[in-house]
Amino acid sequence: MNTENQTSKVALVTGGSRGIGRSIALNAAKRGIGVILTYNTHAEEGESVVAEINRNGGKAVALKLDSAKVGSFAEFSEQLLQVLKNEWNRENFDYLVNNAGIAQRTRIQDTTEAIFDQLVTVNFKGVFFLTQTLIPLIVDGGHIINISSALARAVFPGVAVYGSLKAALEGLTRYFAREYADRKIRVNTVAPGAIDTEFGGGKGDENQRKQIAGMTALGRLGEAEDVGLFVASLLSDDSRFVNAQRIEVGGGSFF
Ligand SMILES: NC(=O)c1ccc[n+]([C@@H]2O[C@H](COP(=O)([O-])OP(=O)(O)OC[C@H]3O[C@@H](n4cnc5c(N)ncnc54)[C@H](OP(=O)(O)O)[C@@H]3O)[C@@H](O)[C@H]2O)c1
């Protein structure tokens, strides 16, 4: 537990069932933050993160969310409000971490409209409309963190749409920070480097992994915990004057 009194704070972490989101949820809970995490297809993983947090003396709830279904966000917001009222006796929350995302490796030549649309919907459109829908529930002075990628800047074959969408998300971060400045809501981007999760089918064979490690100043792939620890620490008022920024968590990658 940290020394800061954060027992009454509540964070919503999308895609908190696995990988980086799971680590963000666990580390936020370790800091005394109540956690509402979302899963899409892996309900059991979502519930196991909740069980781990509860076992360790924290408080967490899992909700289903499909970021591709923008039409379901109003109903999700109502469910969220119910959970906040029932579990925390509140009608708002403090921190939104837009972490859920997907990747699909395809060269530009082979990118179909269906692949393009799916990537746009989950990684960009979904984040925009979910944040728009939930921002009335976020407290004034709250904090939104959008999870981007080193690939928003570094350019590799096979991730043109994904990387471009993460760059767009970084732009969106600054626009949200501008438009919600009147409510003192901070909006920042955290951009992980190559992190060893199942994302996009994982980080490949031993050779590919060595190659990625070789492109990283600290000489290794990142772990979900590397990002989870940082995002959980960034949520708090320790970073109270950090706003509209992009911070890379990649061990010095691809530079
Ligand atoms: N791993 C990396 O190398 C890396 C690097 C840079 C940035 N990132 C970013 O970090 C974030 C998390 O990645 P990760 O590595 O933790 O991936 P992951 O292990 O594949 O986990 C993805 C999470 O997102 C959820 N999700 C996927 N599609 C969704 C949808 N349509 N609606 C709602 N939730 C959905 C998943 O839920 P279910 O499993 O329940 O379906 C899961 O909780 C992503 O935004 C990714 O772009 C990852």
Automatic annotation (TrEMBL):
Keywords: Oxidoreductase. One of its GO terms (molecular function) is oxidoreductase activity. Gene3D superfamilies: NAD(P)-binding Rossmann-like Domain (3.40.50.720). Coiled coil: none annotated. Pfam families: adh_short_C2. InterPro entries: NAD(P)-bd_dom_sf (IPR036291), SDR_fam (IPR002347). Belongs to the short-chain dehydrogenases/reductases (SDR) family. This is SDR family oxidoreductase. The lineage of its organism: Bacteria, Pseudomonadati, Bacteroidota, Cytophagia, Cytophagales.
